[in-house]
Specification:
352 residues, Aldehyde Dehydrogenase, Chain A, domain 2, 30% helix, alpha/beta, seven-stranded mixed beta sheet
């Protein structure tokens, strides 16, 4: 069962239509729509055995707590404040291009957006060049050629992001590039916010502590790599982080000491196939949603232990094996542990 966000269900429906065209049997993949009432029904329904959630921290904690209370296996992938740490020895062109793309793609509305850039030492001199790259990004409806970012998902989301930008200004951050008053021709009533860059940000400000989920990049500075690692590890969210450097020693130190689920080296969004995870307040549950871990998550193990000789094997050829431990003619009867798949698992994309 798949429950998409009620704010943007169309991509989910297209995927399901493709699955139907590919020949998936009726009833194997089901979609439900709705808000909190549907979420609560999923979390409490006795036939649903496991729930995998991706979305905001508030909703993720609600899903995890409610479903767990009703005896379900749950994993919640939640809020993020992803940092990219830049060392002075990094490839400047590659780094600045990566930050501009990772900070503002999808208008910042993705869980792996780079929302914080930490410039270490002399790399802080690159910030003006980063701002110039950001100024060149093109905002449009999303379907036009060469569009870099489109609108945010709703008027409510736009007002929330604008409020946080205003709060950042009030708290003393410097608005190096202001995208609030952008005018997109042909979409005068659209929910657009242009790319926005804050400098002189500190870790006590709301724009740093809050997942903005919009096209806003916060720039911080650190004196050393150790200071940058400490800064990132102090943030309660632990979804993803990136380091830009040409030093193998620095990369090894960073990936060994950082307390973040996904670590990228010279890539801003470390999401390879079957690797998604998180830590601290970005994740609840012990298993991840991809690869071998999701197989374990969706599997309930059983281990039958019959008394020896008390049952007749269903098939002599299937259950009798030759053992070479001591007597080559000795026969042993084996019963393997069975793996039972919980078919009633539910997944849904991000709910903001």
């Amino acid at each position: 069962m798949l429950k998409p966000s009620e704010q943007d269900p169309l991509s989910t429906m297209e995927l399901v239509e493709l699955a139907i065209e590919a020949g998936i049997s009726p009833g194997v993949l089901n979609v439900v729509h709705g808000g909190k009432d549907v979420v609560d029904a999923i979390c409490t329904h006795p036939d649903i055995k496991a729930i995998s959630f991706v979305g905001s921290t508030a909703v993720g904690m609600h899903v995890y707590n409610l479903a767990s209370q009703h005896g379900k296996r749950v994993q919640s992938m939640m809020g993020a404040k992803n940092h990219s740490v830049v060392l002075p020895d990094a490839d400047k062109e590659q780094t600045l291009n990566a930050l501009a793309g990772a900070g503002f793609g999808a208008a910042g509305q993705r869980c792996m957006v780079t929302s914080v850039a930490v410039f270490v030492g002399a790399s802080k001199d690159w910030v003006p060049e980063l701002v110039e790259r950001v100024k060149s990004l093109k905002v449009n409806g999303g379907t036009e050629p060469n569009t870099d970012l489109g609108p945010v998902v709703s008027k409510a989301a736009k007002q929330r992001i604008l409020g946080l930008i205003g709060q950042g200004v009030e708290e003393g951050a410097t608005l190096a590039f202001d995208g609030r008053d952008i005018d997109v021709k042909g979409y005068e009533q659209g929910n657009f916010i242009g790319p926005t860059v804050f400098t002189n940000v500190n870790t006590d400000m709301s724009i740093y502590k809050t997942e903005i989920f919009g096209p806003v990049l916060c720039v911080l500075e650190a004196a050393t790599l150790d200071d940058a690692i400490e800064l990132v590890n102090r943030n309660p969210m632990g979804n993803g982080v990136g380091l830009f450097t040409q030093s193998g020693a620095a990369a090894h130190k960073f990936q060994s000491e950082i307390d973040i689920g996904q670590v990228g080296i010279n890539i801003p969004i470390p999401v390879q196939a079957f690797s998604f995870t998180g830590s601290r307040s970005s994740k609840l549950g012990d298993l991840g949603p991809y690869g071998k871990q999701v197989v374990q998550f969706s599997t309930r193990r059983r281990k039958p232990s019959p008394r020896a000789g008390s049952t007749t094997p269903p098939s002599t050829t299937a259950s009798t094996r030759r053992s070479r431990c001591g007597n080559k003619n000795r026969s042993t009867t084996c019963e393997s542990a069975s793996l039972v798949w919980d078919t009633w698992a539910v997944r849904w994309p991000r709910i903001c």
